[in-house]
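To assess whether the prediction recovers the assembly geometry, we first specified each molecular entity separately, as shown.
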Amino acid sequence: MKFDKPATTNPIDQLKVVGKSIDRIDGPLKTTGTAPYAYERTDVPGAPAYGYVVGSSIAKGRISFMNLTRARSAPGVLGIVTADSAGPLDKADRNTATLLGGPEIEHYHQAIALVIAETFEQARAAAQLVRVGYIKAIGSFDLEAGKNSATRPPTLSGEPSDTAVGDFAGAFASAQVTLDASYATPDHAHAMIEPHASIASWSDDKLTLWTSNQMIDWCASDLSKTLRIPKANVRIISPYIGGGFGGKLFLRTDALLAALGAKAVGRPVKVSLQRPLMFNNTVHRPATIQRIRIGAMRDGTITAIGHESWSGDLPSGGADGAVLQSRRLYAGANRMTATRLTVLDLPEANAMRAPGEATGLMALEIAMDEIAEKLGMDPVEFRIKNDTQVDPENPERRFTQRSLIQCLRTGAEKFEWTKRNAQPGKTRDGRWLIGHGVAAAFRPSPVINSAARVRLNRAGVVTVETDMTDIGTGSYTIIAQTAAETMGVPPAKVVVQLGDSTFPVSAGSGGQWGANSSTAGVYAACMKLRDLVTQKLGITGTDTVFADGNVRSGTRLVPLGQAAADQELIAEDTIEFGDLAKVNELSSFGAHFVEVGVDAATAEIRVRRMLAVCAAGRILNPKTARSQVIGGMTMGVGAALMEELVVDKRRGFFVNHDLAGYEVPVHADVPHQDVIFLDETDAYSSPMKAKGVGELGICGVAAAVANAIYNATGVRVREYPITLDKLLDGMPAMA
Amino acid sequence: MKPFVYERAKTPAEAATAAVRHPGAKFIAGGTNLLDLMKHEIEAPTHLIDVNGLSLDKIEATPEGGLRIGALVRNTDLAADERVRRDYGLLSRALLSGASAQLRNKATTAGNLLQRTRCPYFSDTNQPCNKRTPGSGCSAITGFSRNLAVVGGSNACIATNPSDMAVAMRALDATVETVRPNGATRRLPIADLHRLPGSTPHIETTLQPGELITAVTLPRPIGGTHIYHKVRDRASYAFALISVGVIVQPDGTGRVAVGGVAHKPWRVESADSAMPSGTKTVTARLFADARPTDANRFKLKLVERTLASVLMQAKEVTR
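The predicted structure of the complete assembly is given in tokenized form:
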């Protein structure tokens, strides 16, 4: 099904099932611990052996020797895979660093060996007997120091890395009110609960991999390329995923080493990346240094807006897209953005929830608060004044739908924003200084072609098969709702099967493209199935209705299953997106409101209230969508207050590489969270008229927290995370 | 994890004897710290002596009017004990601010006192650490030191003692009871249990080889207002940046012990005696010999402000 014109009325608009807060259909499996995650699969042919990953203990250099003698002779050891023994391997374009290092070492904890044994404990014990000699090389680990040697990357997420409109320098110089400030965001870890985990099993030259991966087809392509085998010989199975946040978009060490290990020992091998390796072995969100300049007229009209960003990555890596949102969030006749990338020999930088948007808005939305204060304007009104309905860099490109103003207005009303004291440091509740902050949320809602297969049996059960993944987001449920709505059956009559490379290729889960794209693909396949049903039943009327498990036309009423009475009906289709989302700007919007308390003595920060108002097209399931947004808000609190991979700039690694050292919010850090979805549909997005919410939820949150802390204390912190030590000097004197 | 011999001791003296018979032996009770360290070979004992069967799990009144807490009393049970909650509120509050409910269910009184530092370089076996590998150097002093010691450290080590409970025990003047391999028992003030790192940071206590803690006794209750304020980057389940435990009497005298700043729970008697003259003097005396790094200098100010806040709260309670 081609989608190249805005959607008109279609079966989804009935909203009998779609749009309802249906409980997750995979919920009982998750809550009873019976959903089979990759490491726990029991349907593997033969008992798997256990692999334990050995990581490099230096950041950069060469392995001078590896002594495996003691490890090999340790109890239970079946084999050891190293770069030497693995044979020639390729590297997929989506990987920057080599997944199995040696002799060259590109970063700390880069995998250099997999030790395979009968039990996990034996593999671990033997891995600790591997002796490695290194010749260290000098590396670059300091982003600040690397700023001067940073270069312009060729592109930035498919857009130019630098942009300029009008005369930014002139307009900024002559602006009545200006802000010129620098901000810093640290490296972030995905820190998902389920580690990267895989079981690999070979049958002759065919490989089956049970894994935890957001993008089945990328995984199959990249694993076959790395192993130099035909893609047809690789089967990927990943029906349940314990969190990804972008950390499982790509082929990672666990999958490759499980495959190599299983080959080496001639039986299935399971590998779960050890938690202490997860922070340096895998990818992470890169640190940024950002400079923002905004010039405005006294009435609050922005006349100049400039955003520059510096980030680092391994050679041939990419830059963080921090400036992308500043290109089109606010109006302003004179504008510029610039991105610079420096080589850092830290672990590979890559996508993490709202890559670019999250980091960019952490800075931009503080900057907006700062200049609003200089202007003496309310930060909500200042944002509303500078709203735009077109892409300011390319005014011919319109937003298909942009309800930022409604989000801000609705949120301000619900949050009782007008009760906020604009004077910082003046509101007390006992020993707590109280503050309120706001930020805009803005994130593109990409669409990606997505295919599905649907089957109808004589019992009227509709089975959906697509390689779409559910990373805890609710994909199973919204896909069931889509099929149920389109085929006119209750959700209980739909079976959803996901995460298998033998199924049609979907959009996968990432970039908040999954929900809208994958359900549109299922819709397309269901529409094809409806045609097969009517053909089979010999129904030709234009008044045909699929409802209540029946097909109705005129006075004729036939149970849906009857169409499959003698043979299962199978339909497959792909939603193929035209250029609607290129000609126009397809994005979702929101506004975040936060109240914090800051202990006047200790500067401990506690978030007290949070509200998100989201405009994201049709909300397919308010319950799962809300869950996505509050998860993003929680992650935003982490980014604001505590999350930081601490770089040891001498030794070149992230020091706090476990969940005790890398703190994420615990329940006690997360207050009451409200989420409001504006009631809207976007006909330009897909037949579903939905847009992405999963990453919108994190966008702007950290800045709203930062602005609330400023409002509470009068201390402006521009370096995340905002920990109490950065506030102490500005706190009120103690009696 | 390296292979090790596991045995269960039947009496405290037998446990102590076994420990001295096997160099490199370790006692194990709750295992909440030691097992993690063993899995990553941060510790690699060749011999484990399980002391869980020693019946040291009672809290009893002492003839002096205090409490004798068995070495194996779980943190959860100690925090919930009615007498502890009534007479030693500081201890109960310190315990409940530590770890998680699940860990407190397993962790024991003696084990809590003997837990190892959470310095990140100590737990990464690729990095030099004088505490883990004597003589290898300290990665932390010029590295990531934000949460490390500001006082009492040395050029060899700036690790902190991570225990909350020990801070309360120190303020309460607890006494540690032990048994030695020869069967002799001794009592030592908790102030003398933990050592400063000096040039031997791997030796963390004054316990002799094989010496086993059997109980911790608390003297008669001294009344007063008990407050434990633990300051950290998130609201729960994190080690202290600093913690302040105070016992304040109605006349303004009292005691203060500080956690998260040194290799041991930090209490300076001359600082206690300055309590009526205000937090500035108290803090100055607590940190007279402080040698913070640039990254953890904030702890000095944080302790002073936290103490001031805690003393204000104490006043409100008394009023």
